[in-house]
Structures are given as C-alpha cells and as structure tokens.
Specification:
Blueprint lengths: L1 H11 L4 E7 L2 E7 L2 H12 L6 E5 L33 E11 L9 H20 L6 E4 L4 E10 L2 H18 L4 E3 L9 E3 L4 E2 L11 E2 L1 E4 L9 H8 L16 H7 L4 E7 L2 E6 L12 E5 L5 E5 L11 H13 L2 E2 L11 E2 L6 H15 L2 H12 L4 H13 L9 E5 L6 H9 L7 E2 L19 E5 L5 H12 L5 E6 L5 E6 L4 E6 L6 H4 L2 E5 L4 H17 L5 H15 L5 E2 L6 E3 L6 H16 L12 E2 L2 H14 L12 H13 L3 E2 L1 H8 L3 H9 L1 E3 L2 E3 L2 H4 L3 E11 L5 E11 L1 H7 L5 E3 L11 E2 L5 E2 L12 H4 L3 H19 L15 H11 L6 H8 L23 E8 L11 E5 L5 E2 L1 H8 L17 E2 L17 E3 L4 E3 L1 H15 L3
Parallel strand pairs: 18-23, 18-24, 19-20, 20-23, 25-27
Antiparallel strand pairs: 1-2, 1-3, 3-8, 4-6, 4-7, 5-6, 5-11, 9-10, 12-13, 13-14, 14-15, 16-17, 21-22, 26-33, 28-32, 29-30, 31-32, 34-35, 36-37, 37-38, 39-40, 40-41
Length: 971
C-alpha cells in the first residue's frame, strides 16, 4: 500500500494538498506539504474500518491553508472547521472524468458493473485521443473508472464553464443505462479518490466486494490539453435549442418508422437524447451516433467521431437518407391515374460518374487550376488574378494546417466584382454556397449551413458585429464559431457557424477595419477601358452564338471540388526555410504566402508525393505559382501590402503623377474625375451606420493634412475668407511604402538539385531537363533568341485564347511573375497583345519552372565600357529591353544595346533605404552643398557618410532612425 500511495501522491500533489476522509457522517481532514507524513497519516486512516473513502484535492491550493491543520489529520471536524472551498484554489491542474456504473446508492459495484465502467473509460479515452487530447492517467476508483487529463487554467468563471461543458459533452455522448459520466466534478475544489486506499461503500460481500483504488497506467510525460481542444469538446453538442424549421415531428416515432435502432434514451437540456445502436452515416464504425429532440421540437443529429462530422448537425442529411430511401422504389408518372400501378424509378444517371471520372483524370494528369480558370473565363472575361485568389480560397478549405484564405475584391461599381465572385461560386457544388445579405446573427441560426461553405457578401457594409464574426471565423477557421444567447424562456442557447467557411467580400470601397483587411487576400477588379471593350466584345460573341456557359465544364469543376473536399489533408513545405521575402512587417502576409503554396499543392494533390503521415509534399513549382500570384497582389492587381482598395491606389498614383507636394480635394477631384464627396471620402475616410472606415490619411504615411485660411475677393471686390484643407504628399515616402514585395528561394543549403536554386539575377529554376532557363540555353538568351522566346510566349497565349481553353499542365503554359508581368499576362489572356518595347522588362527576371511557367531570365549586368557606339542606329532589338533601334554593340558583336539602357548603365546606382542596409550613426550633418539625396532623389542632402559613400536628406535620415528604433525595440 505504501508504494501505491507514494506513487499517487507524487502524481497528484503540487504544493499544499488537503486530505479528507469520510466516515459515518463525519469527516477527518488535514493539510500537507510534507508528503512522507501524508502517506503515514493516510495509512493509519485507511486501517480504520469506519472510513468509507479517503480523498485529496486535485488543484493548486492556497498555501495559507496549511496553517489550518499543518501536516496533521484532525478527526471529526466540527462545523467551524473549514475545508477547501472553490475560492481557495489558485489554478486548475486536472480535468477529472469519473465513470460510475449505474447501481443502487450506498453499495459497491459488482464485477460486471465495475468492468462496464472500465470499458467505458477506454472508449472515452479513445474518443478524446481522436479529438487531439494527449494520453490520460487511467485509474480504477474501486467501484468505477477514472481518467485524469492535465490542464493549465486559471480558477475563474470561464475555466469553470469550460470544464463543466466538457464533462457535459462526455456525459451526453457516453452515459447510458449501464454507466454515467459524473458532471458534478466541475468545481475547482472537488476532492478525488486517493489511489492506494480502500473504497468501502456498504458491506463487503462476495457479490459487491470492497476494492482498493489504484493507478492503472500513466504516461511517462503527461501532456497538457490545449484550451482550444477543451473548447472544441464543449462545442460538439448544442447547449441551446436549435431553431425549429417546418412542421414538428415525433423523433422517437420517426426513428422507429425508419428502422433506426435506439440503444438508449435519456433526458437532455429539457428534451430527449437518443443513442443509436449503429451509425447511419458511416460503415467505418458502429458507435457514436445520436439524435436529440429538444423541448421546442427541434431536432439535432450527428456522430461524435471526428471522421464522421465530429458532432456537427447532420439531421437534414439523416432525414434525407431515410426519407429518400422510402420514396425511391417506385414513382408515379403524370399520365397514370389514381388506380394505376406506379412505375419503377429510373436507374441513376451515368452523367455524374462521367463528370467524376473526367475530374479525376484532370486531377491526376492535367492542370486542375488551369481548367478551373479556363472555365471561369468562358463566363467572365479577364480578372485572372481575382479568379486564382478565389480558387486558392476554395482549396484552403481542404488544407488541415491553415487558417483559411479569404478574399476581398474591390473596384468601381458595375465593373464585374459580383459577376467574378458568382461565376467562381457557380463552379462549387450547390450545397457549399451562400450568397445574399444576412443579419449580424443570422449565420449562427442557419441549421442548413455546412462546413466548407463559401460565404459571399456583395456590396454589403459590414456592421461592427458582423466584422467581429468575420474576425472570429478567420482566427478559428478550423473550429466552429459559437454564439451564446438566451431564449425567451431565459435558457442558454449555443448557436454555431460551421468550421472551414471562407468569406468573399465584394465592395467598391473599404471592407472594414484594419483587422478585417489584414485577414484577407486583397484583389482588384480590372476596371480599365480596355477591359470594358473586351467584356463588350465577349457579350456580343455570346449573344451572336446564342449559347451560355459550357454546362459540362461547370459540372466537371464541381466534381473537382467534390473530390478535393472529400478529405482535409496536411500539406508540408520541405523547402520552407529557404523562402525569403523583401518585406515582413505585416506578419499575416508571410502566412498567406505559405497558405498559397499549400493550397496549390493541395489542388494538385494527386500529382504530389505523400510523407509517412499522409501529408501532401509541396514542390518548388507550387512556390513559383504562389509567388507569382503574391507579387501580383502586391502590385498592379491588389493591395496585399498596402491594404488599399482599387480607387485608393488609383488616387495615390494620380497624386504621384501630378508631381505636386501640396494639393487640395478639388485638385484631386479634377484629376480623378470623381465627385467632390467621393474624393473627400477617399482622403478622410467616413462613417457608415456607425462603422468607421479609414481613408488615405490613415493608411498612407506619405499624406498629411493641415488647415489654412484662404482669403480671396469676389467679382464685386469683397474679400472672403474661408477654410481650406491642404494635403501634403511626400513622393519619397510613397515610393518606399508602395514599393511592393518580392519573394524568392535562397540557395539550397544541402546543395541538392531537386529544388529551386538562386540564379545570378535572383530568379529560380526547377532545373528540369527541358526547362528553357537552364544552363545550356543561357547563351541562347543573350542573342536574338530573345525574340523567339517572346514569340513563343505570345503564340502560346494566343492559342489559348483562340481555343477558349487554358494551357494544360504539360509544362508548355506561359506565365510571368512580378507586378508588370502580371499586367502583361492579363492583357494576353484577355485578348490583347504584348508590346515587346513596353513589356519585355516585365518578362525579364521572372521565375521559371517546367510545370508552372517558362519565363525569360535576367541577362547579366551591363558594363558600359564593353559596348562600342554605332555610327548609325541599327534596327536590331536591344538585348535588355527589346526596343528598337539600338545605338551600341558589344565588343565581339551579337548583342545590341539601346541608348536608354546604356544611359541607365552609366548612371550611378541609387541607394535604397532597406532596413539594415544603412546605419544612421555613420552619417554626419554637413554645412556644405551636397546636392540631391541618394535615396529619394528629390530632397536636399544634408547628411553624409564617408563609410557608406551616401548622402541623404532630412526625411530619409529620419526614416533610417525610425527603422533603427524599430529594429532595437525602441518605443
């Protein structure tokens, strides 16, 4: 006994612990921090046949209580002798699960009852392991079974509700006519059977013997249950009555009518919980299914296995399965009279199997993303970046290790934001769509909303409450979102939004506060005049042909998403340590880049390797495609870094082009062609229905505001004074702030050849045999072969546009990375053409991979001394930018250079104010004329560093100081 006691005390004790013994209506108690004395005193107590049971406190006790009865047992406590109360507990250390066999009170359990409790404990431990819980301490209480899970929570009301809710869920799922899970163990000061002592309930008989409590097993290292796992367990069952829909049914009669065997029934939340004999949702397991009918008649059904819904509402599915089975044997045709025999139901159509087979073929051997985008473009012209963001958002629903990708699409009214979102949503199975307007809490009360739904909010001003719902959905993407409220009868009701729902917002102006925008992929709709013309031409062609979207392709897309949604898989990025980014200030954006990589790998999961745990292994081409999309979102197709809407970005670009340092609302209004009210809202922000929306003054550090009093005379010579707002614009700050971002793969530290490697120009290459960017073709790129590559790019895209299909995944498709390159690619996809003189620079320096893109590399840097001036301009393409004519030729011949590229090569390089590149402590203020600032090129240089060989102006010097302070943690 002493050894078992010492083991139990070593496991359960932490600081001061109270020992309490119950005997014939009296209690004995003492407090101990000397565990050796505790074991000695308990052994003496356990020898007393009048003691029915000996217990200890489980959680951390206030050390001051030791002075009540320090390392001793006081026998027969009086009313004035206090024991440990809930307020005396400092922290919660254990989640206690007590499984008792059902038996008369005051007696010990029989062997059969005892074994039933031990078996139930194993089922509960297995279920909780499936829910992500670590191994528990398993113990025999003498009459039943114990499971102890290590937790670390404060002793407050929230923690009490979590523990209470967790025990209530286990009680609802596992209590039956033979065993019950004790829900009374939720209070912090609960005492627990001390293992190694005898449990004496009633007399010791052969049928109902007294047994000694003991530890059955304990893990070597006891893991702590994360709070989110406990909260997930609490949320598995509804705590409130779901909203009743339609006419009520008698659930007991309905189950009997459809032959669904009920193993047991018990009261639950004022209604009845039915434990089903076998699971109707899956043949992989038998136990776990249940159905609840609440007092208001509403029904909730599900299965507690994670692989079978994890407690999600599945009543509509259950009803559909059995009522469809009942209806399906025979149907009555319209031509039949009342007495005529019904005809057999037609066999199931083979069309669904055809679409499924086609979808699997694309997933295994083709390019599913290209097929989805190609189908999208048959209904919606252009906006490839927006479409790819929406596709990646859908794929994120099937990635285990992600917080989901949610999309905010902005642009002017009537330019196709809604059409783009609804077109992509139409490629998703009907059950996973929700569009239209909803109130702040309506999502919680929609019983038909299922996990993995796409929530589209079209031109909706999100209220503060709805923004909070969105933030909760993005922060807890993998868990249902709970909302607790009171019914009219003042009963607590818990409503939920299912897990893995993605949010698409389409709005002209700001979507919400910064916390909302930081959680979104921010894409811009193409609202250019050229796009208007392409849309008009597409509409004319569609009307002339008299046909709508290709239904077969749409159904195939739905089958693709059905296959992808069938499993939620983990995706691993083995080369993640090599990924570098030029900007990481917004910590959510790198996470979105990683999610883009994982989502593309998930979409191509049938073409990717798996590790030993079944995780999909991403390839470098997934990085290439994700980096290209990420670069577009940080440039001409989105405001991922700046979080600007399309109109806000256009306003800033207009101010920069105006070349002014000070402007007014009216001046900007004239340049933008908007109303005064719209322009003022862009700059100052606004408030709509109590919700504030930020303007450029708050978003962009390059703009500031001051008020001035302006005096002017009218036609009659009367002097009029009025207040005017003047906005200042710092072009250097604007360029640094809006410079976008670039990401790349560093050199492989292991020197492997199966990943992307860094070229001289920073571009990456998959190094596959037929990749155009490999070492063997480097010399070819430096001669007029550039024109052939350019021709290949245009030809490939023109072929794609003419056939109405996107390039297949055979490695011949073309794409570009970077901001200008994305614009060029969009222009080709949308029916435009590429101008070599304008777009060659966009194509040079991009990333290349056989399965992602064939893109031209950046030629080596130009050394002006290597080039000889031509006596007469030559009609040859510049090997840097592709322009004609050229004015110089490289010594030895073959490479021509235009005048502009030669001039840029001769110009001294500007110093860029990247964090860590310049140290402000090396600069000194001077009184001599230094000329222009080397950083911004506009300000007057007043600081000089001989070590860095640079000179900067006041503004750039202040920025260096701020960067240094941020790096050193100065506040």
């Amino acid at each position: 006994m002493s050894e078992e006691l010492r083991r139990a005390v070593g496991l359960l004790a932490n600081g001061v612990i109270e020992v309490r013994a119950l005997a014939d209506g009296v209690a004995h108690s003492g407090y101990f921090d000397d565990y050796t004395l505790l074991v000695e005193r308990v052994e003496a107590l356990d020898a007393d046949p009048a003691v029915a049971g000996i217990y200890v406190t489980l959680n951390d006790v206030n050390r001051a209580l030791l002075a009540r009865r320090a390392n001793r047992i006081k026998m027969r406590l009086s009313r004035k002798d206090a024991t440990t109360a809930d307020a005396d507990i400092l922290r919660r250390r254990w989640l206690p699960v007590d499984i008792d066999p059902v038996r008369p009170s005051g007696v010990s359990s029989t062997d059969a009852e005892h074994n039933a409790a031990l078996n139930a404990a194993e089922r509960i431990a297995g279920y909780l392991a499936e829910q992500g819980f670590p191994d528990p301490v398993r113990a025999d209480s003498g009459n039943g079974a114990h499971l102890l899970y290590r937790i670390d929570l404060p002793n407050d009301e929230t923690a009490t509700e979590v523990v209470k809710g967790a025990l209530a869920t286990l009680d609802a799922l596992f209590s039956n006519e033979a065993v019950t899970v004790d829900t009374a163990n939720h209070n912090a000061a609960r005492i627990w059977k001390l293992y190694g002592t005898l449990s004496r309930k009633g007399d010791n008989t052969v049928e109902r013997p007294h047994r000694r409590a003991r530890i059955l097993s304990a893990p070597g290292e006891i893991g702590v249950v994360p709070l989110e796992r406990l909260q997930h367990l609490v949320g598995l069952l509804p705590r409130e009555e779901p909203k009743k829909k339609g006419p009520g049914i008698d659930l007991a009669a309905w189950l009997a009518e459809h032959g669904i065997t009920v193993r047991s029934t018990r009261p639950y939340q004022g209604g009845t919980l039915f434990t089903l004999e076998s699971c109707p949702f899956s043949a992989a397991h038998k136990d776990g299914a249940f159905a609840i009918q609440f007092a208001n008649g509403a029904v909730f059904a599900g299965c507690h296995h994670a692989s079978c819904g994890g407690g999600a509402q599945r009543w509509p599915e259950l009803r559909g399965i059995y009522e469809r089975k009942k209806r399906s044997p025979r149907i009555r045709t319209k031509e039949q009279g009342p007495g005529q025999e019904e005809q057999p139901a037609p066999p199931p159509t083979v069309a669904e199997d055809t679409y499924r087979e086609r979808a699997l073929a694309i997933l295994k051997n083709g390019d599913p993303l290209a097929f989805l985008l190609g189908t999208f473009n048959k209904s919606h012209v252009g906006d490839r970046t927006v479409a790819e963001c929406l596709a990646m958002s859908l794929a994120s629903q099937s990635v285990e290790n992600t917080n989901g990708l949610h999309v905010a699409v902005s642009g002017n009214s009537g330019k196709g934001k809604t059409h783009a979102c609804t077109t992509m949503q139409n490629l998703v199975p009907e059950a996973y769509r929700l569009r239209g307007t909803v109130s702040d809490k309506a999502l919680y009360y929609d019983d038909d909303l299922r996990p993995g739904t796409v929530l589209l909010f079209d031109d909706v001003s999100l209220s503060v409450d709805l923004q909070e719902v969105l933030k909760s959905a993005t922060a807890n993407f993998r868990e249902p979102i709970e909302h607790r409220t009171l019914t009219t009868e003042r009963k607590l009701r818990v409503c939920t939004i299912p897990e893995r729902c993605v949010w698409w917002l389409a709005k002209v102006e700001d979507m919400g506060d910064d916390q909302v925008m930081n959680r979104m992929l921010t894409a811009w709709i193409d609202d250019t005049v050229e796009q208007d013309k392409r849309v008009f031409e597409h509409m004319k062609e569609a009307e002339a042909a008299g046909r709508g979207p290709a239904k077969d392709d749409i159904l195939t897309c739905r089958a693709i998403w059905e296959a992808v949604k069938a499993d939620v898989l983990t995706v691993r990025i083995p080369f993640a340590r090599r990924i570098q980014s030029s900007t990481t200030q917004n910590r959510r954006n790198p996470g979105m880049l990683f999610d883009l990589i994982k989502c593309r790998a998930r979409l191509f999961y049938l073409q990717r390797d798996r590790d030993g745990d079944g995780a999909v292994i991403a390839r470098p081409e997934d990085f290439v495609a994700a980096a290209k999309l990420y670069a577009a979102l940080s440039g001409t197709a989105g405001g991922q870094e700046t979080k600007l809407t399309k109109n806000e970005a256009a306003a800033l670009a207009t101010v920069a082009q105006m070349g002014v340092e000070v402007f007014t609302v009216r001046q900007l209004q004239s340049a933008l062609g908007l109303s005064y009210y719209q322009t003022r809202r862009l700059l100052n922000g606004y408030v709509s229905r109590g919700t504030p929306y930020s303007g450029l003054l708050e978003k962009c550090p390059a703009i500031s505001l001051y008020d001035a009093t302006v005096t002017q005379s009218d036609d009659g010579g009367v002097m009029i004074r009025r207040r005017e707002q003047y906005f200042t614009f710092d072009v250097g700050v604007y360029r640094a702030w809006s410079g976008g971002t670039s990401v790349w793969l560093d050199d492989d530290p292991d020197g492997g050849s199966n990943g992307s490697r860094l070229q001289q120009n920073g571009s990456t290459c998959c190094q596959q045999e037929n990749c155009r960017n490999n070492e063997d073709s480097w010399n070819e790129v430096q001669n007029p072969g550039i024109d052939r590559s350019m021709h290949l790019y245009v030809q490939q895209n023109e072929r794609t546009e003419s056939t109405g299909e996107e390039a297949s995944g055979d490695g011949r498709g073309a794409c570009v990375s970077g901001t200008a390159a994305n614009e060029s690619a969009n222009s080709v996809h949308q029916g435009g053409s590429v101008d070599p003189g304008r777009d060659m620079a966009a194509l040079i320096g991009s990333t290349c991979c056989q399965h992602a893109a064939n893109v031209l590399p950046m030629p080596p840097p130009v050394t002006p001394a290597d080039y000889i001036p031509l006596p007469v301009a030559k009609d040859e393409p510049c090997h840097i930018c592709g322009r004609r004519p050229t004015s110089s030729v490289k010594r030895g011949g073959g490479l021509y250079l235009c005048y502009d590229c030669l001039k840029r090569a001769k110009r001294p390089a500007k110093v860029q104010p990247l964090p860590g590149m310049l140290d402000h402590r090396l600069f000194e203020r001077t009184k001599v004329e230094l000329g222009r600032c080397d950083v911004c090129g506009t300000g007057k240089a007043v600081y000089r560093s001989r070590e860095a060989q640079a000179k900067v102006c006041e503004g750039c010097y202040a920025r260096l100081v701020r960067e240094w302070n941020g790096r050193e943690g100065v506040r």
